[in-house]
Amino acid sequence: MTTPELHLVDVFTSDRYAGNQLAVVESYGAVSAADMQAFAAEIGFSETTYVESDASPYRVRIFTPEAEIPFAGHPTLGTAHVIREHVVDGSPEEVVLDLDVGEVPVEAQDGETGGTQLWMTQQSPTFGAELPPDELAEVLSVPRRAIDDRWPVQVVSTGLATIVVPLVDREALTAIELNRKAYDRVTGDRKAKNVLAVCPDPRDEANDLAVRVFAPFYGVPEDPATGSSNGCLAAYLARHRYFGDPTVAVRVEQGHEIGRPSLLGLRATDRGEEVHVEVEAGVDPQSSAHSLPGLTPSVRRFSVRGTGFEPADPSGTAS
Fold first, then answer.
1. In Å, how far from its chain's centre is CA 76?
2. Tens digits of per-residue pLDDT, 126-141?
3. 50 burial type by CB count under 10 A (0-12 exposed, 13-18 middle, 19+ buried)
4. Where residue 17 sits, what CATH number does that domain have?
């Protein structure tokens, strides 16, 4: 049986201990679905991914601490980085991941200040319901006047639906305290469980926007950097001409309020019938690969915060 290996990376940053943490497990059918979920809950990152095939398109499964999800941005980019560096020879310019939403390509490009940047092309977005601003003001525990009435509060999805809430300034963004009862009421019957609040008032003048993202339904009270939701934001910005143009290319801050400063690059073009969306990230490897002997049938020593894995089904297929 294959011995799974664990990689830890920080996504949407070039600095150690910033950005959004990700655990990537090269599992190749050696881990059951139940153990995938148990490990994701135990390690406690926003997401943990499992690489199930060693040939393109690379089959990848994504788990939050609470549930498996069909798509998420920082796991896609971070997993593509691990595949480029550790799975496939030659660090190819493009890696294609086979996710539950379909195939998602990730392209490596030279960064403006050196290093490699990864750009993910997301699915063409769908634009859903526009929601009452007062409901989202209650969810975020901000005054109604904190929501910018020039733009709608709207559900957008590029694979994982997000409620986009435009705020007037960073003071409103910083003041957010999620009201879980109101959150559960507003999101209860909707597919959209992520709430993204955005303002045109970043900390760094070199950037364009600042955001915060909340997803307690998935066990993520606040996310340090959210590629899927920011992809939804990119589509929203282009569709509603937030900057007066159907094409946007912006730098977005996230994670400062929870001590994990992150920076995302967004590009989108509204072509009428569809919106083309790309999200960019730098990736910092926290460590080299670690074998997980606790997943093998003969050795069960490895544990994460006290909980080890049992081996998967002897057939080698993940259930």
1. 7
2. 999 999 999 999 999 9
3. buried
4. 3.10.310.10
